Structure formats: structure tokens, C-alpha cells
Amino acid sequence: MNRFVVVSGCSGAGKSTLLAELSRRGFATVEEPGRRIVQAEMQHDGNALPWLDMSAFLHRAIDMAHADRASFSEARKWVFFDRGLIDAASGLEHLSGKPYLSAPGLADAYHRHVFMTPPWPEIFVQDDERRHEFQSAHDEYVRLVSAYRKLGYDVSMLPKTDVAARADFVLDALAAWRL
């Protein structure tokens, strides 16, 4: 059984906070590739930034997501990913019009049950690493829900509630899938 669980959805809607809570509860978590890429590129004056070269940024995100999955190939418990391959492939498909979501292995790259953070303007903030507007985050969310469903994933919307309740929601939904 696939133990890799994706938390995707709207930017700035609490994915990283949820993963921090799941980590606190003893689960392995993988930080969003995009944030790591932005931090590294900003530190080294790189160009693979979403506001400079979105294509290079998304290709790096795909490479990093593959490496993240490989690093947890022996995991025996749930591993929670803040975004992943499908998020980057969806972005590339939107950017280029090429069928990146048709790439082999995407439909079974993660556990069938995917959790989406819905748009939550009350907690959305911009910063040096997240420069896009809320509307762009919302539009990406719509594309991601469609992409995951198109690939056959079961999509659950996370409730707009405190992080402990969100973590309980995720773990309760996964309880039926014994490892």
C-alpha cells in the first residue's frame, strides 16, 4: 500500500502548519518543494523562482518531489507531503499546454486519499517567498482539485478549523487504511 499522503490545495491555507502538527505527532513529513527551491534560489541569486522563470521552478519542483519520494521508500508509517509531483506537473501543464499530467506514474504516485486545503482568505498572507495574490492561489487550487480528480484520487477538503482538529480529520480518514 502506498504510504505517501499528499496535502495539497490553496497556497496560504495551512498546509505547512498541518504538517508541523503531524510531525509533532510522530509522523514523517516532507516540506513543500516550492518553498525549499525559493529559499535556495534567493540565497544564491538564482533564477528558478516563480516570478522569474516559472518553467525552471516547476521542473526543479518535479525533480525535488521525485527525490523526496525516493528518500522515504522504506517508510513503514504514513509520510505526509506538503505538495508534490502532481502539483508541479499541473503547473507545467497550465503554463505550457503540454500534457504533463499524462506522465507515467502520476496516478499512483501517492496514496489514493488526498487532502486539500480550501481557499481561506482570513489566514492567507504574502511574504518574500509567497509573492502571488490570493486570486492566483485560488485559481491554482481549482486547477489542483481538477488535476487530482482527473488522475483518480479521492479528494477530501480539510475543514477550516484549528490545526489539531485538521490533523485529527486526516488521521481519522486514513484509519480505514491499515498499514
UniProtKB/TrEMBL annotation:
Residues 5-166 form the NadR/Ttd14 AAA domain. It comes from the Bacteria. This is ATPase. It comes from Caballeronia ptereochthonis. The lineage of its organism: Bacteria, Pseudomonadati, Pseudomonadota, Betaproteobacteria, Burkholderiales.
